[in-house]
Design a protein that fits this description.
heterodimer, A: mainly alpha, Hypothetical protein af1432, B: 464 residues, alpha/beta, Transcription Regulator spoIIAA, Chemotaxis protein chec, seven-stranded antiparallel sheet, 18 helices
């Protein structure tokens, strides 16, 4: 179905981060919001993405925010870095979704929901680290990778899953020895994201403890946040609810805290 | 979301948070229609991966489950929950709990009309006395040995001795049970349990596909456990007469045990006897009489007189059957599979040791059966994707082989549908020993094809 060759070919085809993005990220890394905004404004696609992102209802601005320096000012250094990473991940998404019933807007909404709630969680945990804040941006890459690898195998996947309750992550791991989160890690390496970003996302699979208490704890929060988000009507309709396995036991000890932070009634 | 069906039990597995906003979205109209077609004995929603639910969320599923129950007579409800979730559901539906709750899927399987998991020693407890009795009766009807704890203290005390019981039941509630005719297998006989008043509904509640598949795979003795039948009307009479006539083609025998004729016209008995149905007072009159069992055809499947032969319609479709098998093996192993030799013959297996097999029947525009025979190690390799971890557990590998054959059946159905040939597939059957397979396929001619993937060979046999 999915062979190691297909997988390797996919990984090879992941493009390097565009120059403008790398420059923007470097400037954000040293905290120079003004210059970063100037460079970002020069990339029209990035500028358009940032405007759309900031005007999503989840951010709750009454008036349209359209100036990039204004956007970066509102988001701050870590929020801006996160937004740029979100844009980079969206570059990997397909023009037309087949496996999942998504489109660019719905995928953007997913990114925004994850980002906003991740921020709430990090505030609750008293964590103020721009790389940890950005780690959430890598998580939706697992959805893009699933779409890319399995979209032409929809019938096989459906047939397989009619006989056995097996998720896409497990199928990939058993066939090729690498899972969706391993590929996310490869994306992060290619795009020179910080090592901790990939580690948190690996821990968020619920299957691979990283042996670092703080990273594993963040992985739990991220895992639960993912399934909280994938339980939203729009993402259930998109067919995302069961693309990977939810490890309930893994997150049980943070469940009550999570409900308080996110406001689950 | 589609249900995964195993041993007649369909399971939906939502994940995450289940509330009024999203509950109805887990199942689309197409999902519900597909579910109805599954013809499962039991349809459950697993709460194993649901971390939060409220009544509105459950209501969405309950509404759909009840619709399916009305259409299919299946048992419906929820499974895979802890004590806290069990109490919550009981509280939500305090006066309106008309579906079932099973602590685990394993417990649910004891109450299914499936032919697996029989003769288990089961310790059970429920606070509700009537529930204890209802569960004990259902378990007994399904061929198990229920031990009922009368108090929580007794249950806690007894359940400490875990080795004394195969399964321990608590946190379980039987709502309105499905009205499917319960089925169990004893040796080479199939026992159906029927009860109350038998009327035209028997045509809906009796799984005729399963019965036909049983005939095809070699069962010859069918016993209706009718101790609890009050009476039957002319529609049921016609149904059983037709069932006996259609079974005659296979030299099958149908027996009724424990049926009284206090409220059923005695003339019905004569009609049924004319159709070839035999009556006994007690189950042991048959099951403990080896000579009688042999005479009735339960000792062996080799007594078939009228063998069904391959026909042109089925042989014409042979490439589809082989393609479905090859495509499935390729999908499961990521290797390329190919056909080696083919011949029309009786099933011939030179070395029987360390081999296992699985079969699946199909019926509709054409009918027949596909059998796959694997060396044990090759079966394991073919099932790697479904098994996952390394195992030598024969039962697990057989179960997985059944899933694989089920996928082959699904492919066959799709490929034939492309040619406007409509078929349905039966439940898969597995054989841990080749001798039991040969007993079923004895003297049947079919197309035998040697297939291989990588350098591993296995055998494909298509017959009727």
């Amino acid at each position: 179905m999915i062979t190691t060759q297909i997988l390797n070919s996919y990984i090879d085809r992941i493009p390097p981060a565009p120059q403008a993005l790398r420059e923007t990220l470097q400037l954000l890394d040293i905290g120079d919001l003004t210059k970063a905004a100037k460079v970002a404004s020069g990339d029209l696609a990035l500028a358009s993405y940032l405007k759309n992102l900031m005007n999503k209802s989840i951010y709750g601005f009454r008036n349209e925010v359209s100036d990039i320096s204004q956007i970066f000012g509102i988001l701050g250094v870590s929020g801006s870095q996160q937004a740029v990473y979100n844009y980079m991940i969206s570059l990997l998404s397909p023009k037309k979704w087949q496996l999942f019933k998504l489109n660019a807007t719905a995928f953007g909404n997913l990114q925004a929901e994850l980002s906003v709630n991740w921020k709430k969680i990090l505030t609750h945990l008293n964590i103020n680290d721009k790389d940890i804040e950005s780690s959430i941006t890598l998580l939706p890459a697992s959805i893009i990778v699933s779409e890319a690898l399995f979209s032409e195998k929809i019938n096989d996947v459906n047939l397989l899953r009619s006989a056995s309750a097996i998720d896409l992550n497990t199928i990939l791991k058993r066939l090729c020895g690498l899972d969706l989160f391993d590929i996310c890690e490869k994306v992060s390496q290619k795009w020179e994201m910080k090592e901790s970003v990939a580690k948190i996302v690996q821990a968020s699979s619920g299957l691979k403890a990283q042996g670092d208490e703080s990273i594993d704890q963040l992985g739990k929060w991220m895992h639960l946040l993912l399934f909280y988000t994938l339980s939203k009507p729009v993402f259930i309709e998109a067919g995302l609810n069961d693309f990977i396995d939810f490890q309930v036991d893994y997150v049980m000890d943070i469940y009550d805290d999570f409900n308080n932070v996110i406001g689950v009634s | 979301m589609r249900a995964v069906v195993k041993d007649g039990i369909g399971i939906f597995s939502p994940q995450g948070f289940l509330d009024g906003n999203n509950g109805s979205l887990f199942l689309s109209i197409e999902d519900i229609e597909a579910t109805k077609k599954l013809n499962a004995d039991m349809l459950l929603v697993s709460l194993k991966k649901v971390i939060f639910f409220n009544k509105n969320g459950l209501d969405s599923f309950v509404k759909i489950l009840l619709k399916v129950r009305a259409a299919n007579h299946a048992t419906v409800g929820f499974c895979d929950f802890d004590h806290k979730k069990f109490l919550s559901i009981c509280k939500f539906y305090e006066n309106d709990l008309n579906f079932s709750l099973f602590k685990t899927q394993e417990i649910a399987s004891l109450f299914a009309s499936s032919f697996k998991n029989q003769q288990k020693n089961v310790l059970l407890y429920s606070e509700d006395k009537s529930q204890r009795a209802a569960m004990a009766i259902e378990l007994h009807d399904n061929g198990h040995n229920p031990i009922v704890a009368q108090s929580e203290e007794e249950f806690n005390e007894k359940s400490k001795v875990k080795t004394a019981y195969d399964i321990i039941i608590d946190n379980t509630y039987l709502g309105v049970m499905g009205q499917k005719v319960a089925t169990r297998v004893t040796g080479n006989a199939i026992i159906y349990t029927v009860s109350a008043f038998l009327d035209a509904e028997i045509g809906n509640t009796f799984n005729i596909a399963y019965h036909n598949n049983s005939l095809n795979v070699g069962f010859r003795l069918f016993i209706f456990d009718a101790y609890k039948v009050v009476s039957m009307n002319v529609h049921a009479l016609n149904f059983f007469s037709k069932l006996a006539s259609s079974g005659a083609e296979y030299n099958a025998t149908i027996c009724f045990v424990g049926l009284t004729f206090e409220k059923t016209p005695l003339a019905f008995k004569e009609t049924l006897e004319d159709a070839g149905i035999v009556f006994f007072n007690h189950m042991d009159d048959i099951l403990k009489n080896k000579e009688l069992l042999e005479e009735l055809g339960a000792s062996s499947a080799a007594t078939v007189k009228n063998k069904r032969v391959l026909n042109k319609a089925i042989v014409t479709e042979l490439p589809n059957f082989i393609d479905a098998t090859v495509a499935t093996i390729e999908m499961m192993t990521n290797s390329s599979a190919s056909k080696e030799t083919a011949q029309v013959n009786k099933l011939e297996i030179l070395q029987k040791e360390n081999k296992i097999a699985s079969s699946i029947g199909f019926y509709g525009d054409i009918d027949g059966m596909v059998i796959l025979v694997f060396p044990f190690a090759i079966a394991k390799k073919a099932c790697t994707l479904l098994i996952g971890e390394e195992t030598d557990d024969k039962e697990q590998i057989l179960d997985t082989l059944a899933e694989l054959v089920n996928i082959v059946g699904g492919k066959i159905k799709t490929l034939l549908a492309d040619e406007n040939i409509s078929v349905n597939i039966t439940l898969p059957r597995t054989y841990s020993e080749i001798d039991s397979l040969l007993e079923v396929s004895h003297d049947k001619k079919g197309v035998q094809v040697d297939l291989k993937f990588d350098d591993d060979r296995f055998l494909f046999f298509l017959t009727r």
